[in-house]
Amino acid sequence: MDDSQVSSIEPDLAVLIVQTLKLKVDPASVQPEAPLFGEGLGLDSIDALELSLAISQTYGYQLKSSDPDIKAIFSSLRALAHAIEKNRTK
After folding, report:
1. Distance between CA 35 and CA 80 in Å, rounded?
2. CA distances from residue 59 to 24, 38, 40, 85 in whole angstroms, order as listed
């Protein structure tokens, strides 16, 4: 699956991000290819840790800060969804 294709877990993942981080946005308004950090949703490293834990609990995918692809994985909702689909255990 290439990164431009819509992932079936994107809507659920958007809800998980918004609920986990208590963001004041509608999950449906999270743009799949917009940046999660900086000018996109404005997430920071603490948010990444919280989100990693929620993803681990929900999908069984352990995101590690030492992963050389971690910045690419967290670059957008779509990239994160694709990484989870490839690596999930539940």
Report:
1. 11
2. 24, 25, 24, 9
pTM of the model: 0.89
Domains of the chain from N-terminus onward: 10-87 (1.10.1200.10)
Please, how many CA atoms are within 13 Å of residue 5, restricted to the half-sphere of its CB? Answer: 8
Summarize pLDDT for 47-77 with one digit per residue, the tens: 999 999 999 999 999 998 899 999 999 999 9
